[in-house]
Write a structure and sequence with these properties.
The protein is an alpha/beta fold and 528 residues long. It has 19 helices and 20 strands. The protein binds adenosine-5'-triphosphate (ATP) and magnesium ion.
Length: 528
């Protein structure tokens, strides 16, 4: 039987960056093949070549044994190849049904548009993946996770036999992810060939048969999935023995404080601020009955003290992002109060929030997290460009050399690759864009930091680094509200864990009481 898909000695460069070098890979019918590697290793580039979205400089691409000489997107689709891209790319102002139709109508002869059939088909495929989304909804109204589900639905609507998933679960919660895995197992039974990219290495054994590791654009290894432990995979990814760093967890914070503080945060004066602050101080941020009818956050009360990380767990759609948007003035609250250090404040807009020292990392980095067509340096310094910041002079002139030094510092700390301050952000790999987004928030040194899925799409090493920096910012006296669909991350990082369900904060657990079982059962409504 020929390979369903095979790439042989494929290379691709972007300007001076060699994204892929002589990479070979084959995928069998009925096989799920995991593709892993650090941020920037070349995974999406490889997928984009198979999708026909970009052309390889050299190498050979075969589908079911036949050489593909002209790999255009239409030609690849016609051969039964479907791609779920790392960033959902829906047409915002048309309906979900019409977006999904793009996945299958292009594979049929031209003819009249049948709206009823589009609807039926969309409903069908959405049901197959267990997504509760109305086909008539305009795409721009969807949450990030919903967009991702529609992206998946679109790819599957065309009954493709070779399906490439580029981090499909990065924005999904456990329940949606589980449904996707069930579906992938079903597709395998139907003999589909699957390539599956993910930084959530723990999810791979449940679905993948083989795994290929890329490093710096080169093929490092292909093995049976059950031959490699998680640590062995990470070691192959980073190219040396890798021992997971002790996570900067809530209960491990003394260890973190004691370790040598890297430049930036944790200046001594700040690092000890928390211990000097009397416990009777008002919380940094307090919400009293905050509600927002536009977004659906409902009667939320909570308090975050200086030095504290409050994690927010909950299913996708439970109102976590909506809460963050209400606090930061994106969807201003219509009832309830926001208090900052004990004073009632009006947060009617994102600008109000920024003035009050509230930093915000939104979940959808492409929409609001970074400015794609600006450089790394411009993005990193964007938050500190006001008159009183640390990179402009007293006269209000921008000090380019200090700006550059600050950006280089951020690039080094977050290990942005390639480490080029002048690179256009949209040319970076997905995970590296996320690093830039978080570097910008860290550079602004907000007192209150609201993070929505801070480590989505970043590799294992970068994730540990981001955790360490979040903990450092808290130790330096910031109050952090961290939303994450990664339950392990929430449990490890949070001093307290809030659980949301249907727009409400149903419970706030102390670190010690927050077990995975307890959080999950609160999230799905298993207990009162
Ligand atoms: N359009 C482009 N222009 C310039 N460089 C690019 C472009 N697309 C990708 N690159 C570079 O190619 C390399 C590989 O990027 P790619 O997106 O394939 O990485 P990845 O493995 O998917 O990473 P991630 O896990 O972060 O998504 C990176 O160094 C990236 O900066
Ligand atoms: Mg990628």
């Amino acid at each position: 039987m020929p390979h369903a898909l095979s790439l042989s000695r494929v290379s691709k460069s972007f300007g001076g960056v060699r994204a892929l070098r002589d990479v070979s890979l084959d995928v069998q019918p009925g096989e799920a093949h995991a593709l892993v590697g650090e941020n920037g290793a070349g995974k999406s580039t490889l997928i984009n070549i198979v999708a026909g979205a970009i052309h390889a400089d050299a190498g050979e691409l075969r589908v079911r044994g036949r050489i593909v000489s002209d790999p255009t997107p239409a030609a690849m689709r016609a051969m039964g190849i479907a791609v779920i891209h790392q960033h959902p790319s829906l047409f915002p102002h048309v309906s979900v049904a019409e977006n999904i139709a793009l996945g299958w109508e292009t594979r049929r002869p031209a003819g009249l548009i049948d709206h009823a059939e589009r609807r039926r088909k969309a409903k069908d495929v959405l049901e197959r993946i267990g997504a509760r989304i109305e086909p008539e909804t305009e795409a721009w109204r969807l949450s990030f996770a919903q967009q991702q589900l529609v992206e998946i639905a679109r790819a599957l609507a065309g009954d493709a036999s070779i399906i490439l998933f580029d981090e499909p679960t990065a924005g999904l919660g456990v329940d949606d992810a589980q449904r996707l895995f069930d579906l992938i197992r079903k597709l395998k039974q139907q003999n589909a060939a699957i390539v599956y990219i993910s930084h959530r290495l723990e999810e791979l054994p449940a679905i993948a048969d083989r795994i290929t590791v890329l490093r710096d654009g080169q093929h490092v290894a292909t093995r049976a999935m059950n031959e490699l432990s998680r640590d062995a995979i990470v070691s192959l990814m980073v190219g040396r023995e890798y021992a997971a760093p002790a996570i900067a967890s809530a209960n491990g914070r003394r260890a973190v404080q004691a370790s040598a503080a890297p430049a930036g945060f944790g200046e001594n004066a700040l690092a000890s601020a928390e211990s000097q602050r009397p416990a009777s101080d008002p919380p940094l941020l307090e919400l009293k009955g905050l509600s927002c009818s536009a977004s659906g956050a409902c009667d939320v009360s909570l308090a975050i003290r200086a030095g504290e990380v409050l994690g927010i767990a909950g299913l996708v759609g439970s109102g976590r992002t909506e809460l963050a948007r209400a606090i930061t003035g994106h969807d201003p609250a219509d009832r309830g109060e926001v208090l900052i250090e004990g004073r009632v404040r009006r947060v009617r807009s994102p600008i109000d929030a920024a003035r009050l020292g509230i930093g915000y990392l939104p979940e959808d980095r492409r929409r609001d997290g970074v400015i794609g067509d600006m450089t790394v340096i411009e993005n990193v310094n964007a938050a500190t460009m006001s008159g009183t910041d640390r990179v402009s002079t007293l006269l209000g002139l921008i000090d380019r050399s200090r700006e550059r030094a600050a950006a280089s510092d951020s690039i080094a700390r977050f290990d942005v690759r390639p480490p080029a301050a002048d690179a256009i952000v949209s040319s970076l790999s997905g995970g590296n864009q996320q690093k830039v987004a978080i570097a910008q928030r860290a550079a602004a040194k907000p007192r209150i930091l609201i993070l929505d899925e801070p480590t989505q799409g970043v590799d294992v090493a970068a994730k540990a680094e981001i955790h360490r920096i979040i903990r450092e910012m808290a130790n330096a006296g910031a109050g952090v509200l961290m939303i994450s669909s990664d339950l392990g991350e929430v449990l490890a990082m949070s001093d307290r864990v809030g659980v949301m369900r249907a727009g409400r904060l149903v419970e706030v657990l102390d670190h010690g009481d927050a077990t995975p079982q307890r959080v999950m059962s609160l999230a799905v409504g298993g207990e009162a």
